[in-house]
Model the fold of this input.
Amino acid sequence: MPAPAAVTKVALLFEANNAYARGLLVGIGEYILSHSPWSVHYAELGAADSPPPWLKAWDGHGVIVRGENRLIARAVEKLSGPVIDLTPSRLLPRAPWVKSDDAAIARLAAQHFLERGFRHFAFCGDDRFSWSNRRGERFAHLVREADYTCHHFAPAPTPPSHSSAKPSRTSPLQSPNADATVDAIGAWLAALPKPVAVFACYDNRGQQVLEACRRAGLAVPEQVAVLGVDNDEVLCALSPPPLSSVMLNPRRVGWEAAALLASLMSGKKSRAEEHLIPPVDIATRQSTDILAVHDPKIASTLRYIREHACEGIGVGDVLRHCPMARRALENRFGRLLGRTPGEEILRVQLNRVKELLIGTKLPIWEIAGRTGFGPEYLSVVFQRQFNTTPSRFRRDHGVAR
Done:
C-alpha cells in the first residue's frame, strides 16, 4: 500500500481587523481550494502581540505574514523556509512582497476628482504609515501635473511610543485622541478653498473627514467631496452621507501571494521582488456624487448623462435636454472637461459595465443590454478602451474570479 502523500504545512500570521485583510484570507482560501490542500496553521494577531509559542519550533513548509507587527517580523526572519510578505510597510525586505499598488490607487483618485471638474484638492493621510505617505505623494504629484495645488493635513505630533509595534489599522475613531484629531481635521477643512476634493488615505480616515465636516457644518459633497480607500461597505455606510471609496482587489492579492508561496515551496528560487496588484475601480457614493462645474448648463447636462447614459441616449438626446448649438456644447465640454459629450456618455456606460462585471454574475449579453450596448459592440468598445475583453476583465477582477 503506497504511503500517503506528505501534507504541505503553511502558517498564516495575520492582523485581520479590517475588510481588506479578510479579503486577503478569502483569496488565499480560494487558491487552496483550487489546488492541492494545505494544512493551515492560522494565528490572528494584534499589532503588539508576541509571536505564537509554536512558531519558534515551526517545521512547516512556508509562511505568509500580514500586519504591522515588528515582533512577528523578527521572529519570521529567523525561519528557514520561504516567506511571503503582505505587510503594508514591507517589514520583511528579503522576502517577496505582494500588495496593492499605491501609485495606481492615487491615480484613480486623481482621475475621479479631475473628471468631476474640481480645482481645489487635499490629501488627508496618516503619516505613521508608509503606504499612506506613498498615496499622498503620488496624489499630490498628479494634481500638480494638472496645474493645481494639493493641500495636506498635518496632524499634531503624537507622543513617542516605547512599543516596538507599529500602530494598527483599527478605526482612528476608536483611539483615545479621536475627538482632537477630528476637530483638527475640521479646522483644516474650514480653511481650505471650496469646493474641495479630499482624498483620504483609507476608509477609516475618510470617516473622520465626514465626521469633521458634520461638526464644522460643512456640506458634503457640495463644499467638501470625500473619497476613501478599501471600499469597506460596512464602514462606508456608517455615517451619512455614504463614503465613496477606491475598490482594491484583496482577493487577487491573497491568491497571488498563495500562488507565489506554492512556487517557492516547490523549489523555485526566492527573489525579494515587489508584486503590485492594481485597484479595480471606484465605488461612487454620495460623498463624491457631484460635479464641480461652474457652468450651470454643463452641470445640468452632466447630470442628465449620468442618469440616462445606459438607456442608449446619444448627443441628440442631450441637446434636446439642454438646447444649444452642438458646436457650442462640444466647445464648452472640451474647455471644462477635456472630452466631448459623446465621450462622456461612453465613459458613464463603461463605468457601469465594469461595476456589473465585478459585482454580479450576470451574463455579458445581459450587461450589454442593461448599459445600452449590443453584445458584440460592447466587446469591441471594451477592448478598444481597456485593451482587454469583458470576460477577461471579469476573470481578473470579478466576484467569481
Q: What stands out?
A: Confidence is low (pLDDT under 50) at residues 161-166, 170-174. Residues 102-158+168-249+282-288 form a domain with the Rossmann fold fold (CATH 3.40.50.2300).
